[in-house]
Amino acid sequence: MTPMKSISPVLKKYTPPALAIALFLMAWSFGAKQIETSLGQVPGPAMVLDQARILWQEHVAERQKAREFYERQKDRRAAMLEVNPSATVAAVSYTGKPTYVDQILTSLKTVFMGFVIASLVALPIGIICGLSKTVMRALNPLIQVFKPVSPLAWLPIVTMVVSAVYVTNSAWLPKSFLISAITVSLCSLWATLINTAMGVASVNPDYINVARVLQLSPLKKTFKVLLPATLPLIFTGLRISLGVGWMVLIASEMLAQNPGLGKFIWDEFQNGSSQSLAKIMVAVFTIGLIGFVLDRIMVELQKRVSFERVHA
Amino acid sequence: MIIEKPIVSEIPGTAKTEQRAMALDVRKLTKIYPTPNGEYVVLRDLDLQVWKEEFVSIIGHSGCGKSTLLMMIAGLTSISGGEILLEDRRIEEPGPDRGIVFQSPSLFPWMTALENVMLGVNQVFPHATKAQRFEIAAYYLDKVGLGDALDRKASALSQGMQQRVGIARAFALKPKVLLLDEPFGMLDSLTRTELQDVLLEVWSKEKTTAIMITHDVDESIFLSDRVIMMTSGPAAIIGDELDIRIERPRLRKDVLERSSYYEYRRHLINFLEH
Ligand SMILES: Nc1ncnc2c1ncn2[C@@H]1O[C@H](COP(=O)(O)OP(=O)(O)O)[C@@H](O)[C@H]1O
Ligand SMILES: [Mg+2]
Fold first, then answer.
1. Which ipTM value was assigned to this complex?
2. Cβ < 6 Å from ligand 1: which residues?
3. CA dihedral A186, A191, A193, A198 (to 10 degrees)
């Protein structure tokens, strides 16, 4: 085989997307120059890349400042204790403004929390729906009606309810975080619920028959037969749920003022400096990339649990 | 219940009587399915007796109700009329005293061959030690020729190997009766022949009462002591039966050399064609 021949499939695979991306960047930088907004010219790729670098540098600088703050505090404390060994020195934590990386982490934490809540609610209900046609028929209208509701509609309700119920606003679990997470779960739980119910209801009847012949207890039947048989479909549901959750997270963070990417975009939009649009575009790409990575993770997990491989 | 049944030996002049215990007694069994255009009677007043340690095959046209009969014996399908006694006890629900081999292997693909068999063994022998239970499962897997595939995932096994596990799983329950619903129907003819030999070998050791549905006339003769012929539905019953007097152990090539084999064959095909 000549080297040319072995390279050509690789070229074939990567050339079209590379071309498409190049074309997109060109169209973007050309189109951006044509539009003038109240915040200045629409930023092109170069400006966005520049802002990404600045945001990263700000993050590094902020971390450096925090480290120095704690260093100083330690020194001061040591000095005070030297003068008066019985002095009590209160530790002060650094209160710098959250950096872009902090905001990404907050968003990830929020979507993860929402995803966990959604799964904890959707999985048991889905299993019960799958097991009982009656329960399924009973819940179906509610599921169908609530499923398409936008996070923007849920948010005011969630905000009011959480504010009424959750009065101790601790630093560990801020109210805005909880509101965003619950809103995310309200929008994302449906995919998992429906997939789980469908999966359990459509388990190969032979499997159920084997379980009946072996007289497995309901618990054993659920964990040894139903769930493993349904796992591939459950994971399809979880994957959709996580995707939906990540998508609605930005909107709910904007409104709930949860310090994540959504709030970052909102603040930039409100503050309206000449770099705002470029920063928002950095956020757009960040959201897209993280969504993509989350999806890939779910696909990998799904592959692990799927047993319907081709026969050897 | 002990019933005297005269047995005619294959060798003329040596007729003898043997005491045989009844394993399964199907009495006036009726199955009716409600359908949009009224009731559909699959079986009506079907009677069938199976002796202990007997291997019985059931043949009949597609859709006549063979699976329905077997599933009712298994307790997996409800009975519309009549009753089924297994060793004098009425069958009410499914249980591991009736091991089933389905047409599709129906193994749990996320488990290994061993785990599939162990699931049943654990249920039937809850008081045995873990080592003893492993021993039982491994023994039967070895008997079906999978001694070195214990830890292979069921989904990674070929169709024929999966059905071997299915057979091991059913025998490992030490059931009172083994129910097989066209167990080799989905296999190619070479694999089918292999598995018939495997089944016959394990069965000869265990002597488990067995009822097998098949649409393969040769298979029914080679494996069974008796072939039951069901009439075509609706309201199917037992139309005819044929004792296969070929002594065991049976070797395929010996069986094929007998003239009686061809008489049995003609009898069965004649029934199916009318
Ligand atoms: N759940 C059901 N409802 C209505 N009719 C059924 C049902 N299951 C089976 N039947 C009918 O009962 C008859 C016997 O089916 P089956 O026992 O599977 O036949 P066989 O195994 O002999 O091919 C068929 O005509 C089939 O259409
Ligand atoms: Mg059938």
1. 0.89
2. B 33, 35, 40, 42, 60, 62-68, 233
3. 160
